[in-house]
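User: quick one, fold this
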Amino acid sequence: MRLRTTCPATPRSWTVELRSHPHGLVLVCQHCPHGSTQVAALMARSAALAHLARHARGHLLPLHLRTCQCRERGCHWHSRHRGCTGPIRLLLARERGGRVWRLTDTCTACAAATEQAAVVPDTALARAPRPPAAPRRHKRQPKGPGERARVREMLNYLAAALPESTTAAARLLALQCALRMDATMHVQLARGMLRGLRLDNPAPWRELEQVRWLRNRPRNAINKIRAELLDAPLLDQAPARRDRTQAADWALRVTSSASAQRRAGPLLELAALYLVAHADPGTGVGQADLAQMARTCGTRCAYLSDLLEQLAAMGSLASWQVCHHGGDLTWRLTC
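Assistant:
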């Protein structure tokens, strides 16, 4: 009798640390043979995320071979434990105020219980396909998931990439910038669109500059604002720019609809966008971890109940419920 043998699956868990150095910062990775690399302080976070993404691309595995690395380590990455259940997700987490970054496979339950973390969609690891050498005349078809899924993926990414204290206004601005940027990481936003979102004031721009997520360019156009993004992993977005722009327009319509019914602030608009992006498009029913929604919106779990009540009063939500034992939020959108 012959025994069937298989090679053990590579543990998909990588951690990098940003350490102080007399000439700036050093990126330390225990998984690399060279060990450490000096990086500029301005690009430290982007360098860490790009480094982790390269590891993940180099160790792609089919889903049935991926295991929860949090469970393998005794689930010590999160405080509460609800049991390892659900599909395997790729989780990006940060510790020590952004000095340590970890990209790892975890089950859905562990991902929801981990603080300062967000699920990274597998499509974010696929590079954008190269355009054909000669233009084709047939009608172009969108590549990848639809607008709703692209917005959901970007919201999840920004939940981990931006500091926890980032305001909802800055997060809405970051979402539009990330989805509309070009291949050189530059973006132009129309002032009229920003006025509609009430983001034409300098506060959210200054906030993203202070955390070194973007650099404001000289405003040499009357009707546009230009900026350069500094978050290098954004270059690895799989969808083409036109598809991402359509997703940005979809997010704009959702937030504009929420603000039109009442003088809603950025936090209420971002919460409405989160619920629509995470709901089933056919039934309007959605489910998410309450803590994950709070991180994505830049607020605390204790404030979400009031936001949900306001959305229900505005007619955006038909019903919602929180399971206090497990921390799950379920909701149903109005038709």
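User: anything notable?
Assistant: The first strand starts at residue 13 and ends at 21.
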